[in-house]
Amino acid sequence: MASGDSDLIRLFLLRYDRPNTRRSYERDLQSFFGTEVVTLNQARQVTFVQVNGYIQALEDADYAPATLRRRIASLRGFFAWLIALGALDTNPADRHVIRRVKRSGGSDRAITVLSKEQSRQLIEAVDMDHASGVRNRALLYTLLHCVLRRSEAAAMNFEHVRPVGRHWVLDLPSTKGGADQFVKLPDLVRNQLDDLSSYYGATSGPVWRSLSPNSYGRRLSTTSIYDIVNKTARKAGIQATVGAHTLRHTGCTLAIEAGATVQQVQTHARHKNLETTMIYVHQRDKLADSAADFIDLGENGGNE
Fold it and tell me: What is the spatial distance between Cα 29 and Cα 45, in angstroms, rounded to a whole number?
């Protein structure tokens, strides 16, 4: 049982293994309490009225619904943990006592996806005359074909690449869907990684490394990976905002369009729920077979 002056956020975060999860919960809780250290006495003073006021303030500041729901989930989980410890009797963030937050669209939410031609343009936009060319090209191929989350890509080591029979896989020791997962590496991607290994002159350690003089050889952060993808997309003339997750969406969609089953894509993308994979199918079908295509006012050369 935590004492009245214990740092509850630090103790709460011990429940989670993934660094990104810990950072998200830490930021969310510190944002709500307005302090880096939260004691039991502070936590006991929180009421559902305060939680509702916090949600209202975030809505007034135009925070995205997904951000609101994540912050509420952080608070709800934190107070549920205190209840499990016997420190609280009720949860001030319980769904039955706080205001509802509108959802951001679910399966109808527009997902940014690149076409096959745009994906080629993205790859071709990599400057192979620059020192970072081999690395950046390999990164784009890996994100597209292995549909990795940004955190999964950032954690890659060369030791995680291994053969399984006549195939090659990338081990994902710690990922959103659980520990000890793996994803198939197509030959094209494995060849890119081999080229990168030769370029570094290394067969172990981080796959994505800084080539900057101030941080040479260090593992790239998730932010750096996003920036590489985003800057390359802008150079390719792609108008949409493109990040690492865009390539995950793109890989899933291109696989479905090429004939992969929903179950195959679910397995490859490591989606826990089939409904998540179905979002790509719904968007494709909604755009490919839309009533908008039947509305004709004669603007395209028709005669009235």
Answer: 15
| pLDDT of res. 64 | 80
Half-sphere exposure of 108 (CA within 13 A, CB side): 3
Distance of CA 206 to the CA centre of its chain: 20
Residue 304 has pLDDT above 50, yes or no: no
First vs last C-alpha separation in the chain: 79
For CATH 1.10.150.130, list the domain ranges present in the chain: 8-104
Residue 134's Cβ-side half-sphere holds a number of Cα atoms within 13 Å equal to: 16
Give per-residue pLDDT as tens, 76-113: 999 999 999 999 999 999 999 998 887 655 555 678 88
Q: How far apart are CA 78 and CA 280, in angstroms?
A: 33
Distance CA 161, CA 169 (A): 6
| For helices 65-84 and 48-60, angle between their N-to-C axes, nearest 10 degrees | 160
What is the three-state SS of 29-79?
HHHHHCCCCCCHHHHHCCCHHHHHHHHHHHHHCCCCHHHHHHHHHHHHHHH
Residue 28, CA atoms < 13 Å, CB-side half-sphere: 24
Q: Which CATH class is domain 116-288?
A: mainly alpha
3 state DSSP class of 304: coil
> Which segments of 61-146 does DSSP mark as H helices, in order?
65-84, 116-124, 133-146
The pTM of this model reads 0.69
Nearest to 229 by CA among 213, 245, 215, 218: 245
Say which CATH architecture domain 8-104 belongs to: Orthogonal Bundle (1.10)
Degrees, nearest 5: CA angle 111-115-118: 115
Instruction: Give span(s): CATH 1.10.443.10, the chain.
Output: 116-288
DSSP 150-181: HHHHHT-BGGGEEEETTEEEEEEEEETTEEEE
Judged on CB neighbours under 10 Å (0-12, 13-18, 19+), 218 is: middle
